[in-house]
Amino acid sequence: MEQVQTLSVPTVPIFGIPFSRMDMKDTVAYLEEVVRTGQIHQVITGNPIMVMTALEDPKYMEVMRAAELVVPDGTGVVWAANYCGTPVAERVAGFDLLHELMRVGETYRWRVFLLGSTPDVIQETASRLQKQYPGVVICGYRDGFFGSDQDDEVIAEIREAAPDLLFVARAVNNQEPWIGEHKHRLGVPLVMGVGGSFDVISGKSKRAPVAFQKMRAEWLYRLLREPTRAKRMLALPQFVAKVVREKENVTKSV
Fold it and tell me: How many CB atoms lie within 10 A of CB 106?
């Protein structure tokens, strides 16, 4: 298999997790090359909640560190890298990265498979993405409600569809571990967890208004709309406190 050109990705470790320092433009160019060469890549859109989860769960940490590319999706990660003196170029939001990859995919007639969310949401997401990016082939989609006993069936379905990109939206506790466990069996060049992106694309929920995005407060908008997220959101101030408290060690390689 042809190897990706040695464009070594500049990274900064945040508590042992190697976050890319590339901006959106360079990230998309790198992943374009990944798809072209067919080398398996798991892309994780990392945020402080995921970092804190990894610090508490060694298996989750292993998944995060084993991913071929971790981009700084959360503004807290961008702040931490800057605060500790090794800044990343910018926030690379997973929602925006998905759309950038779809845009590039029109040039190459990339095949895309969508996995996750509910049957209604995934069907509407597939329909809307196909209309928005007619040059891309939505080669398959399936909801995310399946157990480990159905993994073989799901993997076979994806392999049969032969996508270039696989976007996965499942529960936060199993999205990245599931991809990490099965990425080589899936055989898809680029596999990326996209969280709640399908809900936004399908129209089920709304993305934070531009004002919140500019203030880097999309997390606050989500919390206001979904108060049940409060417990998860406690990880944000905990992350900030940990970075401030351990500033000298945050970016040390493990």
Answer: 13
> In a structure prediction context, what are the per-residue pLDDT tens digits for the chain, which is 254 residues long?
444 445 589 999 999 999 999 999 999 999 999 999 999 999 999 999 999 999 999 999 999 999 999 999 989 999 999 999 999 999 999 999 999 999 999 999 999 999 999 999 999 999 999 999 999 999 999 999 999 999 999 999 999 999 999 999 998 789 999 999 999 999 999 999 999 999 999 988 665 566 655 655 555 555 555 555 555 657 888 999 999 999 999 998 76
How far apart (Å, rounded) are the C-alpha atoms in residues 181 and 186?
Answer: 10
The token pair that represents 186 in the structure block: 């899936």
Burial letters 120-141, b for 16+ CB under 10 A, else e: ebbbbbbeebeeebeebbbbbb
Say which DSSP state 24 is in. Answer: H
241: Cβ–Cβ under 8 A, 6 or more apart, which residues?
Answer: none
Alpha-carbon span 239 to 188, nearest angstrom:
33
CA 123 to CA 120: how far, in whole Å? 5
Pairing type for strands 17-20 and 11-14 reads antiparallel
Helix%, strand%, coil% for the chain, nearest 5? 50, 15, 30
**Which residue in 110, 112, 107 sits closest to 125, CA to CA?**
112
Backbone angles phi and psi of 108, in degrees to 5: -105, 0
Q: Are 20 and 69 in contact (CB under 8 A)?
A: yes
Both structure tokens of 245? 């408290």
- Closest to 74 in 3D by CA, of 174, 205, 200, 217: 217
Reported pTM: 0.89
